[in-house]
Design brief:
Layout: H1 9-30, H2 33-40, H3 44-50, H4 54-74, H5 83-99, H6 101-113, H7 118-127, H8 129-145, H9 154-165, H10 170-174, H11 183-201
Helix pairs in contact: 1-2, 1-4, 1-6, 2-3, 4-5, 4-7, 5-11, 8-9, 9-11
Amino acid sequence: MEVNAALSPEKRRQILAGAATVFAADGYEGASMARIAAVAGVSKGTLYNHFDSKAALFSAYVEEKCNQYLARVFDSAGHGDDPAEVLRGIGKRMVQMLLSDVGLAIYRVVIAEAAKFPDLARGFFEAGPARAIGFMADWLAEESRRGRLAVNDPAFAAEQFFNLCQTRLVLRRKLEMLPDPPERDIEDVVEAAITMFLQTYGREAYG
């Protein structure tokens, strides 16, 4: 938990940028508050005045990044366009988020430390994947209410769609088995995901 809510936006960005660099380089367990303070260009006292523990700092960093990325992923997820077009935008932006340097760095830190620090993994899931599933489920439920889709379990369908969009690219990139894929490859995977998704949940699938 943050100790001092009066932390200025500029100083907060400075501290979280330093934390990002250290967590990515040293992992969670290997990172120290002293090194984070040094990289961020603040004193240890200043750091502890605003974040009372390394766990609080990591959680704040993850939450901020999830807020930024999820806002981009779902910023145009309205109900005026064709569902396929909305899915296209959500899917593409979601994959880009997962393949971004920040997305990959956070994922790798969390996976490496999940067994020793399960609360960090849980916090990451709640701040990122769970919220994304919730946003998507709400959109699918509303589309179904309007008769444009037919989704009985929106949360399950949301998770299905996100996983379809990761086919062939995301896991391999996380494992450093692929370089950053070109945009065309992302578009092809997302398009295939939409086709399969709408074959199950599209209004036409139910006659």
